[in-house]
Request: fold
Amino acid sequence: MKRSLLLNAEISTLVASMGHGDMVVVGDAGLPIPTGVDAPQRIDLALSPGIPSLDQTLTAILSELQVEQAYIAEECLQGSLKELPPWCANLNGIEIQTISHTELKALCHRARAVIRTGECTPFANMVLVSGVTF
Reply:
Protein backbone atom coordinates (compact mmCIF):
# COMPACT_ATOMS: atom_id res chain seq x y z
CA MET A 1 0.00 0.00 0.00
CA LYS A 2 1.24 3.49 -0.85
CA ARG A 3 2.51 5.60 2.01
CA SER A 4 1.83 8.95 0.39
CA LEU A 5 -1.23 11.17 0.63
CA LEU A 6 -2.63 10.18 -2.79
CA LEU A 7 -4.11 6.68 -2.53
CA ASN A 8 -6.54 6.62 -5.48
CA ALA A 9 -5.16 4.14 -8.04
CA GLU A 10 -6.65 5.85 -11.11
CA ILE A 11 -5.31 9.27 -10.16
CA SER A 12 -1.90 7.84 -9.18
CA THR A 13 -1.65 6.17 -12.60
CA LEU A 14 -2.71 9.40 -14.30
CA VAL A 15 -0.10 11.47 -12.44
CA ALA A 16 2.65 8.95 -13.24
CA SER A 17 1.77 9.08 -16.95
CA MET A 18 1.53 12.86 -17.37
CA GLY A 19 4.10 14.76 -19.38
CA HIS A 20 5.07 18.43 -19.55
CA GLY A 21 2.06 20.50 -20.61
CA ASP A 22 -0.53 17.76 -20.14
CA MET A 23 -3.73 18.93 -18.49
CA VAL A 24 -6.03 17.45 -15.87
CA VAL A 25 -9.32 19.03 -14.77
CA VAL A 26 -10.54 18.87 -11.19
CA GLY A 27 -14.20 19.80 -11.20
CA ASP A 28 -17.29 20.24 -9.15
CA ALA A 29 -20.20 17.80 -9.21
CA GLY A 30 -21.97 19.70 -12.00
CA LEU A 31 -19.14 20.19 -14.51
CA PRO A 32 -20.15 18.61 -17.83
CA ILE A 33 -17.57 15.99 -18.84
CA PRO A 34 -17.07 15.45 -22.57
CA THR A 35 -18.03 12.06 -24.00
CA GLY A 36 -17.15 10.33 -27.23
CA VAL A 37 -14.16 8.77 -28.93
CA ASP A 38 -11.65 11.49 -28.02
CA ALA A 39 -13.12 12.21 -24.58
CA PRO A 40 -10.80 12.53 -21.59
CA GLN A 41 -10.68 9.84 -18.94
CA ARG A 42 -13.45 10.33 -16.37
CA ILE A 43 -12.51 9.74 -12.74
CA ASP A 44 -15.60 10.12 -10.59
CA LEU A 45 -14.88 10.64 -6.89
CA ALA A 46 -18.23 12.26 -6.01
CA LEU A 47 -19.81 10.48 -3.05
CA SER A 48 -22.29 13.03 -1.73
CA PRO A 49 -22.63 16.83 -1.77
CA GLY A 50 -19.27 18.24 -0.62
CA ILE A 51 -17.55 14.85 -0.33
CA PRO A 52 -14.82 14.92 -1.37
CA SER A 53 -14.41 18.66 -1.62
CA LEU A 54 -12.42 20.32 -4.37
CA ASP A 55 -9.89 21.45 -1.76
CA GLN A 56 -9.37 17.92 -0.39
CA THR A 57 -8.96 16.52 -3.89
CA LEU A 58 -6.50 19.23 -4.93
CA THR A 59 -4.44 18.68 -1.77
CA ALA A 60 -4.02 15.00 -2.61
CA ILE A 61 -3.25 15.59 -6.30
CA LEU A 62 -0.79 18.42 -5.65
CA SER A 63 1.11 16.18 -3.23
CA GLU A 64 2.36 14.21 -6.26
CA LEU A 65 1.78 16.23 -9.45
CA GLN A 66 4.24 18.93 -10.50
CA VAL A 67 2.04 21.80 -11.72
CA GLU A 68 3.34 24.85 -13.55
CA GLN A 69 0.08 26.62 -14.28
CA ALA A 70 -3.61 26.51 -13.41
CA TYR A 71 -6.75 27.91 -14.98
CA ILE A 72 -9.90 28.86 -13.11
CA ALA A 73 -13.13 30.46 -14.30
CA GLU A 74 -13.30 34.20 -13.77
CA GLU A 75 -16.89 33.62 -12.60
CA CYS A 76 -15.55 32.04 -9.38
CA LEU A 77 -13.65 35.18 -8.28
CA GLN A 78 -15.20 36.47 -5.07
CA GLY A 79 -16.26 39.87 -3.79
CA SER A 80 -15.69 43.36 -5.13
CA LEU A 81 -11.92 42.82 -5.07
CA LYS A 82 -12.30 39.68 -7.20
CA GLU A 83 -10.36 37.54 -4.73
CA LEU A 84 -9.34 33.97 -5.46
CA PRO A 85 -11.59 31.33 -3.86
CA PRO A 86 -10.27 29.54 -0.73
CA TRP A 87 -9.50 26.33 -2.63
CA CYS A 88 -6.76 28.21 -4.53
CA ALA A 89 -4.73 28.48 -1.30
CA ASN A 90 -2.99 25.17 -2.11
CA LEU A 91 -1.47 26.62 -5.27
CA ASN A 92 1.55 28.31 -3.69
CA GLY A 93 3.90 29.50 -6.41
CA ILE A 94 1.72 28.21 -9.26
CA GLU A 95 0.68 30.73 -11.89
CA ILE A 96 -3.13 31.05 -11.89
CA GLN A 97 -4.88 32.41 -14.97
CA THR A 98 -8.55 33.28 -15.15
CA ILE A 99 -10.57 32.44 -18.22
CA SER A 100 -14.30 32.35 -18.88
CA HIS A 101 -16.25 29.32 -17.72
CA THR A 102 -17.01 28.61 -21.38
CA GLU A 103 -13.26 28.55 -22.17
CA LEU A 104 -12.63 26.29 -19.17
CA LYS A 105 -15.24 23.81 -20.39
CA ALA A 106 -13.57 23.85 -23.83
CA LEU A 107 -10.22 22.97 -22.21
CA CYS A 108 -11.88 19.83 -20.79
CA HIS A 109 -11.79 18.39 -24.32
CA ARG A 110 -7.97 18.71 -24.39
CA ALA A 111 -7.40 17.34 -20.88
CA ARG A 112 -6.00 13.87 -20.21
CA ALA A 113 -8.68 13.38 -17.53
CA VAL A 114 -11.51 15.10 -15.72
CA ILE A 115 -11.80 14.32 -12.02
CA ARG A 116 -15.31 14.87 -10.65
CA THR A 117 -15.54 15.76 -6.96
CA GLY A 118 -18.54 16.20 -4.69
CA GLU A 119 -17.97 19.97 -4.60
CA CYS A 120 -21.24 21.90 -4.95
CA THR A 121 -19.88 25.45 -5.15
CA PRO A 122 -20.71 27.15 -8.47
CA PHE A 123 -17.77 27.38 -10.90
CA ALA A 124 -15.44 25.42 -8.54
CA ASN A 125 -13.36 23.90 -11.34
CA MET A 126 -9.65 24.03 -12.11
CA VAL A 127 -7.44 22.97 -15.00
CA LEU A 128 -3.96 21.94 -13.87
CA VAL A 129 -1.10 22.03 -16.37
CA SER A 130 1.69 19.58 -15.64
CA GLY A 131 5.21 20.90 -15.24
CA VAL A 132 8.58 19.20 -14.96
CA THR A 133 10.70 18.49 -11.90
CA PHE A 134 14.05 19.25 -13.52
About this structure: The longest helix spans residues 9-17. Residues 9-130 form a domain with the RbsD-like fold fold (CATH 3.40.1650.10). The chain has one domain: 9-130. The chain has a mean pLDDT of 94.
